[in-house]
Amino acid sequence: MASRREAEKRQKNTRSDLWGQCSEALQQVEEAVGGVLKTEKELRLNTAEVRAQVHSAMSRQQEALRCRELWLLSQIEIIEQVKSETLQQQLLQINQVAAQLDLISDQLQKQPISNELKNHLTNQLSSVLQSESGPGPGPGPD
Question: Which segments constitute the Nuclear receptor coactivator 4 N-terminal domain (predicted)?
Fold first, then answer.
């Protein structure tokens, strides 16, 4: 009987040891699950933070591009205005030369022309032609 008791005691001890090991293993698994869940939560938080940072950076870049676009468009307007004013000035000068040439042409068509008038018209024509060959229309609009 003693051996039966010892066998039962050993079996009980073995069960107790197995139950302890199983309990310990379950506790370790639960801790591992908790660690994974905690890591997953941190991942979601980190991902949300990174997404927010990317969105913020892209928004700043887009705003900077919009500002640059507006500035460039305003520069285009200024250049167009300056070039247009220059062209208008050149047109005025050309029209003045044309008027002077018309006047000289009218005078030359009159009969008779005195030497004094001929010299005067020749000087005027030379003057007009020199001013015309001076700073005239530059390169066309870009």
Answer: 40-126
DSSP state of 68: H
pTM of the model: 0.55
Q: What is the pLDDT of residues 17-59, one digit of tens each?
A: 888 899 999 999 999 999 999 999 999 999 999 999 999 999 9
Measure the CA–CA gap between 142 and 74, rounded to whole angstroms: 16
Query: Distances in Å between the alpha carbon of 58 and those of 54, 61, 64?
Result: 6, 5, 10
Cβ neighbours of residue 97 under 8 Å, at least 6 residues apart? 128, 131, 132
Which residues, including other chains, have CB under 8 Å from residue 132's CB and lie 6 or more apart?
Answer: 97
Q: Give the pair of three-digit tokens for residue 61.
A: 């870049």
